[in-house]
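User: My instructor asked us to take a sequence, write out its structure as tokens, and then describe one feature of it. I'm not sure where to start. Here is the sequence I was given:
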Amino acid sequence: MEESRREKIFKMSAELVADITVDFKRYLYSEVDWDCRLVCIKGARGVGKTTMLLQRIAEMPNSGDALYVSLDNVWIDAREAYSLAEYHVAHGGTHLFIDEVHKLENWQDLVKSLNDNLRRLKVVYSGSSLLKLEKRGGDLSRRQTPYTLDGLSFREYLKFEGVADIQPFSLDDILSNHVAIARSISRKFPVLAHFDAYRIGGYYPFYKEEPRHYLNRIVATANQVLEVDYPEIEDVEPMTIRKARRMLNVLAMSAPLTPNMDRLYRELGTDRKQGLKMLYALERAGLLSLLTTASKESLKNLPTPDKIYCSNTNLMRALVALPNPGTMRETFFLNQLRHEHGVTYPAKGDFLVDGKYLFEVGGAGKGFDQIKDLPDSFVVNDDTTVGFGNKLPLWLFGFLY
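Assistant: Let's start with the prediction itself. The structure tokens for your sequence are:
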């Protein structure tokens, strides 16, 4: 690599680190074992991976030991990237942070070479194309420590906004002590007003950058997945991509329902096998959440989904001006619970969590009619500040992480 280009990369890294703030860190920051030799941080576009990498460098005892390279901004091939890493190590560098690694063709070969040959170098890499990372990253599975960064929880949003800094609660804590927890939190600020704001515009951290254009950026991110990421891993017709975009809009507007899969495949212009592959790919890419009667991890083949949701409520709001309120409630609940818990579709009720807890999600007047007398059953009410008995407020499940 030419000396001038190399100096430009090092200068850019130093400037980005100097400008970063560390007053707010995502939940994953403290969970990552930064001492591992090879760390992979995955996450949907816009959830804050870049900020987290730069924050880590900023908090190192000597930030000069680390180099940050975004392959989205600096065009280099694998040979030049390896040469840059060699130069960094030769001059005392100990850490290399590679962002948007999927932009590099055969990126996995570069990461493998760095890990095998530069034994003193610790590498952290991330990428926003979850589909490309998963498709081509299998050879690294035994070498690396992987992590996944989700969007902001309601709890994190409140901290990001400077409203309140509250520690997360476990699901068992919430189920057994929800009245006291809800009362304690709701005394500090108008929780329902902030909850409404979060569901419309608080899941992706970039909402603060240009609030007026936030929803448009979400749509642009979804289009990037549909038009660029997915076609790069599958041979798919442009017409199918356009129909998939329309499917997202329909999901945002519709009441929660069990889809007619044959009809859906026809509307997408594909067969069952290819249709299922697309649905699960869009789930991995952070656009959909598929609910099935059994854990997908326990099945060899892709199960037909019993319900299909947009992945989060902000995406729903970006797609349509008036998303269905019932779907918004269920989408929020599923999004927050799936962070650490297994969620399946039960014979009765809306969600079965960890194979044990049964939940029915609805408005303020929702009762136990559909899950009456069933063990470990709970009703989750929207537009409710504090619950009672086995009736819990919906917003409280935003404090799980």
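For the description part of your assignment, you could build on this observation: The longest strand covers residues 38-43. Try explaining in your own words what that tells you about the chain.
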